[in-house]
Amino acid sequence: MIRLLSLALAVFLAIPGVHAAELRGHGGPVRALAVGADGASVVSGSFDSTAISWSLGTSSTEQVLRFHDGSVNAAILLPDGRAVTGGEDGRIAIWAIGAAKPSRILEGHEGPIVSLTLSADGQRLGSAAWDGTARIWPLASESPPKILEGHTGNVNGVAFLASGEIVTIGYDATLRIWPENGAAQVETFPTPLNALAVVPGSELLAIGGADGRLRLVGEDGTIRAEAEISPTPVIAVASDGQRIAAAGLRGAIAILAAADLAPERTLVGPGLPVWSLAFVPGTDELLTGGNDSVIRRWNVATGASLDSGLAGSPVDPLAEYAGDPGAGVYRACVACHTLQPGEGVRAGPTLHRIMGRPIASLPDYDYSDAFSGHDIVWTPETVARLFEIGPHAYTPGTKMPEQTINRAADRDALVEFLERATR
To answer: Could you tell me which CATH number the domain at 319-421 has?
Structure first.
């Protein structure tokens, strides 16, 4: 399903240090979100193959984490501040604070990892993948993981229960409760199961289904309540213990009471799929990540959007180029690239002095091996060709989001703008 969905329209980024509500920096849909226990740190994962650590206080990027070959579908923060990311490449990366490379890599899954979870004592990491398995990894040792097998298809969620048991959900429409030893208890539902969240402080699970319904399930596997959320599949669920947030492919986020799924309100965004949700501990704030590459902030008690209205404001990095047709085309690039040094961290390298520069030649940027293997010098002709046929055709193996510019006049305007703006 991930492969079939197109990358979203790119948007402009808030300059680090500016107090803005939205978090902008990814060059593709935001697939994963996690907030630290301190309520100040955030890690996100995207279809653009990167993870980003953020400061929630300043709404600014702290570090772009580049490692995975393919989309970053899952992310969590450990109690000591380390980030953990899981990717389409089937690998899990554990990142020390501020490190440019993972301090530990966990391998074994043979399909995309789509869910990560941490045990209450912080000693075990759970992962769920589309290879039909979940795995439980000891964090304090190099011992091999415990492999949970039984689902007949994609495993879409994994969580640790207060009882110490482990629960998994799958596209095979089953919920499985795994004891420390022995066979799993299997509960079959009327629909494939897409998203799973533990309701903190309770013995309840919130489960989103392909039928557009949210189900409140006890730790014994019985359904306690259910509610219709959307005519499309529910693909993201989160809970802060008092409320449950659920979202689907049409972009609206339902807020319901955690005790009985009584509806409280609906948050209406831009109408694009919402892939990830995370509550900010100790507050009424909810973060949402979607197909437009933006992480939005909401007050769930009032339903108000905390959008600061960056468009057209003084922090718009293209404000000085208002009315320039080439700058208008370039807006589809500004989420990942800067024009000048000092404009902050983004997912791609700066374009400063791009013309005449050999491909993959900036010393402070970690290019993929595939991108580094090409023999290209960036000129007006090569830049135009890149967007005429698309990055994946022109530079095979690239992690750059796929996008083309069909009109020759638009390509010419972009090239002319880059020649002026990146000198």
So the answer is: 1.10.760.10
H helix or E strand, kind and range, residue 393: helix 391-394
CA separation for the pair 295, 273 (Å, rounded): 12
CA 100/CA 366 separation, integer angstroms:
9
Kindly state the tokens that stand for 208.
């989103």
pLDDT at 226 over 80: yes
The third-level CATH classification (topology) of the domain covering 23-305 is Methylamine Dehydrogenase; Chain H (2.130.10)
Left if phi > 0, otherwise alpha if psi is -120 to 50, otherwise beta: which for 390?
A: left
Sign (positive or negative) of CA dihedral 394, 398, 402, 408:
negative
**Is the separation of the CB atoms in 88 and 68 below 8 Å?**
yes
Instruction: List, by residue range, all CATH 1.10.760.10 domains of the chain.
Output: 319-421
CA separation, residue 395 to residues 283, 375, 382 (Å):
45, 10, 11
Residue 311 has pLDDT above 50, yes or no: no
Residue 69 near residue 49, CB atoms below 8 Å: yes
* Residues paired with 63 in a beta bridge: 53
Angle between helices 380-389 and 408-421 (to 10 degrees): 140
User: According to CATH, where is 2.130.10.10 located in the chain?
Assistant: 23-305
Q: Which of 269, 211, 215, 222 is nearest to 237 (CA)?
A: 215
Helix (H, G, I), strand (E, B) or coil at 235: strand
CA distance 390 to 108: 33
Task: Copy the structure tokens of residue 96.
Answer: 């020390």
In DSSP notation, 87-108 reads ETTS-EEEE-TT-SS-SEEE--
User: Which of 10, 23, 124, 27 is CA-nearest to residue 72?
Assistant: 27
Give the DSSP H/E element, type plus range, for residue 421.
helix 408-421
Of 88-102, 209-223, 257-271, 323-337, minimum mean pLDDT range: 323-337
